[in-house]
Design goal:
The protein is α/β, with parallel strands linked by helices. The protein has a single domain, classed as Alpha/Beta hydrolase fold, catalytic domain (Rossmann fold). Helices cover about 35% and strands about 15% of the residues. It contains eleven helices and eight strands. Strands 1-2-4-3-5-6-7-8 form an eight-stranded mixed sheet, with helices on both faces. Helix 9 links the parallel strand 7 and strand 8. Helix 3 packs across helix 4 and helix 5 packs across helix 6. It is globular. The relative contact order is 0.16.
Length: about 290
């Protein structure tokens, strides 16, 4: 069973069409630039900043951008330093990544603003460090399927793709999506396989030392803003959502922790309608809004 908001057609064309509707901004990052893409306008309240997972890019959010912008949000999707079209950070650590984020948001939004951060997997860990180092920028942090909580890891099953061609290559790519990112075989569609290959080729940072085993758990006590979470019930790399929730509540006992049924790690791709509705409802509960 799939949610309704799937995208049909040639994957490269679909990615290009959504990207063409964005405003592209480049800001300083190490010896090059960090690339941001922006949809919607600035009249809908607090901007929503999206951070992707490891070996990903802005397109991890391809099934969510229109719904979030359509709900009146200014949607700012980052290619995090060392990923997608962005250069490596000045230093290969969270301080370097956070510095690039702060400089970029300052250029895009100016001073005196706050944003809601929505971080998937590695992006959630990077955003948690940003929230601890630059709290003046952050109203709220929402984590999606993040590692670094020092919980027992799940069983990841990945196949070698190099040297394969044709149907064998497609079968290996699909198996890798199901071995890490997605729960249902039909979710590993042509678009998901296209994004897997496209984004992995552009990734230059190994996230393991920036995440595992407890980098998120270590920084959360220093995050002063509300922290909430959304998890797929069948998240393979970070399973048993109740264990993740328990760690999060040690530092943020009032966290809003929601689990989406019938979804894996890449929950916002696999169940976009349910994820979008859940996220927008969560955002509507922000105190004082």
């Amino acid at each position: 069973m799939n949610d309704a908001s799937t995208l049909a057609g040639d994957p490269a064309t679909l990615v290009g069409e959504i990207e063409e509707r964005a405003r592209r901004v480049e800001t300083p990052c190490g010896e090059g630039a960090m690339v941001w893409r922006i949809w919607g306008d600035d009249r809908g309240g607090v901007p929503l900043v999206l951070g992707h997972g490891a070996q990903g890019a802005w397109s991890h959010w391809i099934r969510n951008i229109d719904a979030l912008a359509g709900a009146g949000r200014m949607v700012i999707a980052a290619d995090l330093p060392g990923h997608g079209d962005s250069a490596d950070p000045a230093t290969p650590d969270h301080a370097g990544i956070s510095a690039a984020l702060a400089e970029g948001l300052g250029q895009i939004l100016g001073g005196g603003r706050t944003v809601d951060l929505l971080g998937f997997s590695f992006g959630g860990v990077a955003f948690a460090y940003f929230a601890s180092l630059y709290p003046e920028w952050v109203r709220r942090l929402i984590l999606i399927g993040c590692g670094g909580l020092d919980t027992p890891p799940g069983q990841i099953d990945l196949r070698r793709v190099a040297g394969l061609e044709g149907e064998a290559r497609q079968a290996a790519l699909k198996a890798n999506l199901l071995g890490l990112m997605l729960h249902h075989p039909e979710s590993a569609d042509d678009l998901a396989m296209h994004l897997l290959v496209r984004n992995a080729r552009r990734s230059a940072i190994n996230p393991q030392t920036l995440v595992l085993p407890d980098r998120l758990a270590a920084v959360l006590p220093g995050v002063s803003v509300p922290v909430d979470a959304i998890w797929g019930a069948f998240d393979r790399p970070h399973p048993a959502p109740h264990l993740q929730e328990a760690v999060l509540r040690r530092s943020h006992p009032d966290a809003d922790f929601r689990v989406i049924k019938d979804a894996g790690h890449w929950v916002m791709y696999e169940r976009p309608d349910t994820f979008n509705e859940t996220l927008l409802a969560m955002l509507d509960t922000m105190a004082g809004e």
